[in-house]
Specification:
It is built from 15 helices and 23 strands. The chain is of the alpha/beta class. Strands 15-16-17-14-13-19-20 form a seven-stranded mixed beta sheet, sandwiched between helices. The chain has a six-stranded mixed beta sheet with strand order 10-9-8-11-12-22, sandwiched between helices. Strand 9, helix 6 and strand 10 form a beta-alpha-beta unit. It binds nicotinamide-adenine-dinucleotide. Keywords: NAD, Oxidoreductase.
Length: 510
């Protein structure tokens, strides 16, 4: 994690503040970390990193925000959500540019992530139906039993760099709709999107304190994990940190959902249309420079199709344009998030090569003219990687696609199931029976059938299995509403007015 910053050698850069109590906050002398434009490799800003006092201030403001927001009527809360949806829909191109400037992905891809987040906002506008309780009349003679759903209080969200708008939007529309106050700790690598969203909430009419952005690093995260005032944590990021969050938040008595890393396989049966498969593999492997938790990183080719498929993927890679994601003529793929991450991706390709793989297309010494200091890594294709290699087993999170040859469908499924992750997977075939067996036997949370990146729509829920999700609640959909509410069951008996009560006071004419 980035430590305190060195300033941009070319001059002063702005400080990206927190959003606390309905306004920007960045105390003098605050610790900061550099924020880069990955396409140029230059520092574009410094982000404030919360210390203990700032964490306390944020939580105190959220407590006040909760007191106000949770008492808004359902109809009034709904009108704020509708206003937010309209503002977001109208202004999303502005947000997309902010994302591209700090993350590096191409603008149309940034628009795509906002749209997927907006779907959850739209789901959340229908929240009254999803948070209403249930009623059982006369459960026993004269006794009614009913349940009501209430908010948790202050809920923490800790998000990764790769979807600075969409991932927070997997959680906060639902959390707010249910009446909670949100404290969002965005990634310190691309912190501006969260701030933009905070301003939008204010404009939509959300009361101050109900949505807080706490910028920072481990200190800020630990502050949320340990605070007795924070009721739950929704985390998305790498598996080791997800596990840490799950264990620490649980130890502090919190409700927790922690989504981790991935290594997604695409199984290609010999009957599949190989042109379609090659198109989809290139989109799913190299889109957003492979920095998607649902990116495909392994193509499992059931022989004899591997050689033909490698040729088709190689041809398509040759036509890919890599460059500055904000360029007027939009490229297909932008840079990686940081220099350190680019070096790590290159290291994995070195490992694959040392373990005996053939590097069919090598992106290691790739650069973009005019952007020599940008964090670019060329699309890379690997053949014949041994499944014992760390480069096969671990998440690379870059534009690196490996083709692994298997003899049968069963061998392919067994290989997928032997992995430690279980986020997404896909099968490409025209055989309905094979697809049906695949969905039944594969130990993965999200499955695509001739769909390479099967991110569920907002009214289903998003989440993997195994080390891709710690906890038992997925993001958004019905799972989301269950996570962000707690239920009370009321057992009630009112005496019949004939026995006692209102009639004595003349209220009811019996
Ligand atoms: P990361 O784990 O490094 O960071 C995620 C968040 O945790 C950030 O806000 C960061 O500040 C914080 N953090 C980092 N180290 C910490 C520590 N030691 N203690 C407390 N907090 C800490 O992840 P990243 O590099 O930002 O994102 C990429 C990862 O996220 C990939 O592994 C990717 O697969 C995963 N991801 C998963 C999903 C999913 O749905 N399963 C979605 C998106 C991204």
């Amino acid at each position: 994690m980035a430590a305190s910053a060195t300033a941009d050698p070319t001059g002063d850069v702005p400080v990206i503040p927190h959003w606390i109590d309905g306004g920007e906050y960045a105390p003098d002398g605050t610790r900061t970390a550099p924020v880069f434009n990955p396409a140029t490799g230059r520092v574009s800003a410094e982000v404030a990193l919360a210390d203990e006092q700032t964490i306390e201030r944020a939580i105190a403001s959220a407590r006040r925000g909760f007191e106000v927001w949770s008492r808004y009527s359902v109809a009034r809360r709904q009108s704020v959500l509708f206003a937010f949806r309209e503002l977001l829909n109208a202004r999303k191109p502005e947000l997309a540019r902010i994302i591209t400037a700090e993350h590096g992905k191409v603008v149309s891809d940034a628009m795509g992530e906002i749209l997927r987040g907006q779907e959850v906002v739209e789901l959340a506008t229908g929240f009254p139906h999803l948070i209403k309780g249930a009623f059982s009349e006369n459960a026993s003679t004269g006794i009614d039993v009913y349940s009501i759903k209430q908010p948790l209080g202050i809920v923490g969200i800790v998000s990764p760099f790769n979807f600075p708008a969409m991932v927070p939007m997997w959680f906060f529309p639902v959390a707010l709709a249910a009446g909670n106050a949100v404290v969002l700790k965005p990634s310190e690598k691309d912190p501006s999107a969260a701030l933009w969203l905070a301003r939008l909430w204010q404009e939509a009419g959300l009361p101050d304190g109900a949505f807080t952005v706490l910028q920072g690093d481990k200190l800020a995260v630990d502050g949320l994990l340990e605070s007795p005032d924070v009721s739950s944590i929704s985390f998305v990021g790498s598996t080791p940190i997800a596990q840490y969050i799950y264990e620490t938040a649980s130890r502090h008595g919190k409700r927790v959902q922690a989504l981790g890393g991935a290594k997604n396989h695409m199984l290609v049966l010999p009957d599949a249309d190989l042109d379609l498969v090659a198109d989809q593999a290139v989109n799913a492997g190299y889109g957003a420079a492979g920095e998607r938790c649902m990116a495909i990183s392994v193509v499992l080719a059931v022989e004899p199709v591997a050689d033909a498929l490698i040729e088709k993927i190689r041809d398509r890679i040759a036509a890919l344009r890599v460059g500055d994601g904000s360029a007027e003529t939009e490229p297909d793929m932008g840079p990686l998030i940081s220099r350190a991450h680019r070096d790590k991706v290159a290291e994995y390709v070195d490992i694959a090569e040392a373990d005996g793989a053939r590097i069919v297309v090598d992106g290691r010494r790739f650069s973009v003219a005019g952007h020599e200091d940008g964090f670019f890594f060329g699309p890379t294709l690997i053949d014949g990687i041994p499944t014992s290699s760390r480069a096969y087993q671990e998440e690379i999170f870059g534009p690196v696609l490996a083709v692994v040859r298997v003899a049968t469908f069963d061998e392919g499924v067994a290989l997928i199931n032997s992995g430690r992750f279980g986020n997404g997977t896909a099968i490409f075939t025209n055989d309905g029976g094979a697809a049906r067996r695949f969905q039944n036997e594969v130990e993965v949370g999200m499955i695509g059938i001739n769909v390479p990146i099967p991110v569920p729509v907002a009214y289903h829920s998003f989440g993997g299995w195994k080390q891709s999700l710690f906890g038992d609640a997925k993001a958004y959909g019905v799972h989301g509403f269950e996570f962000f509410t707690r239920e009370k069951a009321v057992t009630s008996r009112w005496l019949d007015p004939a026995t006692r009560g209102a009639s004595e006071h003349g209220g009811i004419n019996l």
